[in-house]
Amino acid sequence: AQKVTQTQTSISVMEKTTVTMDCVYETRDSSYFLFWYKQTASGEIVFLIRQDSYKKENATEGHYSLNFQKPKSSIGLIITATQIEDSAVYFCAMREWGNTNKVVFGTGTRLQVLP
Amino acid sequence: EAAVTQSPRNKVAVTGGKVTLSCNQTNNHNNMYWYRQDTGHGLRLIHYSYGAGSTEKGDIPDGYKASRPSQENFSLILELATPSQTSVYFCASGDAHRGDEQYFGPGTRLTVL
To answer: Which of A18, A83, B20, B91 could form a disulfide with B105 if both were Cys (CB 3.0 to 4.6 A apart)?
Structure first.
């Protein structure tokens, strides 16, 4: 069964620094998709970035990038030049290609960016 | 313009009552999902759908039913609401052909007294 684990429950960083949030996953499928989502204080959940397992290049999107380490079943989210507005809860998620259309989420990491 | 909308946004129900949560999407996505979010559990999948007429059980389907009468609409039904179903419920849509990155509605806060 697929599983996603985020062990960091909370992180605090200073504004304009770089932060990495960890995520490890379990799957028996050779093809899968990995996602990161952001939940703001208002409760809104927004898709940020995605990594397809067959792609060797790390995905990037604005000041978000991924550190995909397939042999370690790890997909870290890197935020560079953090801003106060990046303070939120970040969820990692995975969908296996061939099994079902089910997506499994981690429990989230709360990021606080300090001025 | 919001592509996934939910109604109601807030609901107070009595134990044993019937509750229907509605979701509408204008993304033209095949897949739709219902999650609940509780502190310490993240997002847990209740039901999902591949398209009109289909519903599938997620990880925590007990006590919930779902209905997908059209591509745009997906409902979550609590036939006999219980206090343990007090939670925030999110609907989402996704395109399976594009990896199924999901687009979420604003959430419904349900309180069962």
So the answer is: B91
